[in-house]
Specification:
The protein has 10 helices and no strands. By secondary structure, it is mainly α. The chain has one domain. It is globular, with a radius of gyration of 20 Å.
């Protein structure tokens, strides 16, 4: 029987890790801040260029951080680069497929509303509900939950294979689902806390200026990244 994830112990352990590794996290956080600040400041004038540069930075950022976290030597090899790029491509393909399926479901519902008796009322009800919820921050949070649930299966769990491609462990996507089977609800709670509740709380207290948005993004990025690799460690412990 797989060991069950204790959410309280997980977050307490993560905070303890952060407290004992402040210096390295601050250094990586500074790099994240610089990239975020520059992208926010110049993206509107050089959108395509900044998008490519930021994507390359994110890849290098996660590559180096994870390699250092697992004390990989040598830090960078051509094999790790090729393997990690392939894993990223697969993960993004899965995410894209999930988005397309979600859109197809909406289009199917809309088609049914136009052509099938009984579905027009359901579609109209859902549309009114969407408009009502999107008008409020708490409502937008509720709308975000099903998207996060989909991303859990198409991005975050498959994303464990990217970590495995850098530390030499099992990099099978099916293996990732197998290791996390039976604990999807707890993983979902962790993801909602990291990628919905924390950003929403930050948006309420952080001034909407490039500098402060960059600081907020850097702090969130480092905490989210540490939580993610520690979540990986739990499911991939030997």
């Amino acid at each position: 029987m797989n060991k069950q994830l204790d959410l309280k112990q997980f977050f307490v352990g993560t905070l303890s890790f952060v407290a004992h590794n402040v210096l390295i996290l601050v250094l990586f956080g500074a790099a994240s801040f610089l990239a975020s600040f520059l992208s926010l400041k110049y993206v509107f004038g050089h959108q395509n260029v900044m998008l490519v540069c930021y994507a390359l930075f994110c890849y290098a950022f996660y590559f180096v951080f994870i390699s250092l976290y697992y004390e990989q030597k040598p830090l960078i090899t051509s094999e790790k680069i090729v393997s990690s790029v392939l894993k990223i491509a697969v993960v993004f393909a899965l995410s894209f497929l999930g988005v397309m399926l979600f859109k197809a479901l909406i289009m199917l519902l809309r088609y049914g509303a136009d052509n099938l008796v009984g579905l027009s009322g359901l579609y109209a009800f859902l549309r009114r509900g969407y408009v009502f919820l999107s008008a409020y921050q708490a409502g937008r949070f509720l709308l975000y939950l099903p998207i996060m649930f989909m991303l859990m299966f198409t991005f975050f769990i498959p994303g464990f294979t990217f970590v495995s491609s850098l530390n030499g462990k099992d990099a099978s996507i099916l293996g990732a689902y197998e290791k996390t089977h039976g604990q999807f609800l707890k993983i979902f709670v962790v993801l909602v806390c990291l990628y919905a509740l924390l950003p929403m709380a930050a948006s309420l207290v952080v001034a909407q200026k490039p500098v402060w948005l960059g600081v907020s993004h850097a702090v969130l990025t480092m905490f989210q990244l540490v939580c993610y690799v520690r979540l990986y460690d739990f499911f991939y412990q030997d």
